[in-house]
Amino acid sequence: MITGIGVDIVHVTRMEKWLAKSELLKRYFHPDELASALSKGNGAAMSLAARFAAKEAFGKALGTGLADIILKDIMVMNKHNGKPEIILFDTAKKALENSGAKKVHVSLTHETENAVAMIVLEGA
């Protein structure tokens, strides 16, 4: 059963500006997630934009927003086949448990100017 759906869009130029501000990147992205995105070279801003959109979409899917959630507790990574997945830690994991959802599905897409993420939460 679907318990929540969230969608968000982020302008890639926003992340291009953040690339010069390491304190922002470290505040909002899990270290492993950040390393993975930065390894993409010229594609780093698009990758970060999609991941940030997923974090925002997660809050929307919860129906509570991101209150009391530390954003770097939401890690968006790609499996070996490229499929994105969300790994939750501490505050984000607790928020998911409190929502009653058991599974998080994520889809990411991006073009030159924008990145979009959709989250579907699934319950028992």
Give the averaged pLDDT, no decimals: 96
Terminus-to-terminus distance:
6 Å
**CATH secondary-structure class:** Alpha Beta
Q: Which strand order do you get reading across the main beta sheet?
A: 1-5-4
Strand residue percentage:
25-35%
CATH architect. name: Alpha-Beta Complex
Main sheet attributes: strand count, strand direction, barrel closure = 3 strands, antiparallel
Q: What's the helical proportion of residues?
A: 40-55%
Q: What is the CATH topology classification name? A: Ribosomal Protein L22, Chain A
Let me know the number of strands.
Answer: 5
**Rg from alpha-carbon coordinates:** 14 Å
Per-chain topology:
Elements: E1 2-11, H1 12-18, H2 22-28, H3 31-38, H4 44-62, E2 74-78, E3 84-88, H5 90-99, E4 103-110, E5 114-122
Antiparallel strand pairs: 1-5, 2-3, 4-5
Helix pairs in contact: 1-4
Structure, explained:
The protein is built from 5 helices and 5 strands. The chain has one domain (2-122): Ribosomal Protein L22, Chain A. A 3-stranded antiparallel sheet has the order 1-5-4. The protein has a two-stranded antiparallel ribbon with strand order 2-3. With 124 residues, it is of the alpha+beta class. The termini are close together. The longest helix is centred in the middle third of the chain and has 19 residues, at 44-62.
Using brief descriptors, characterize the structure shown.
124 residues; alpha+beta; Ribosomal Protein L22, Chain A; three-stranded antiparallel β-sheet; two-stranded antiparallel sheet; 5 helices; 5 strands; 30% strand; globular
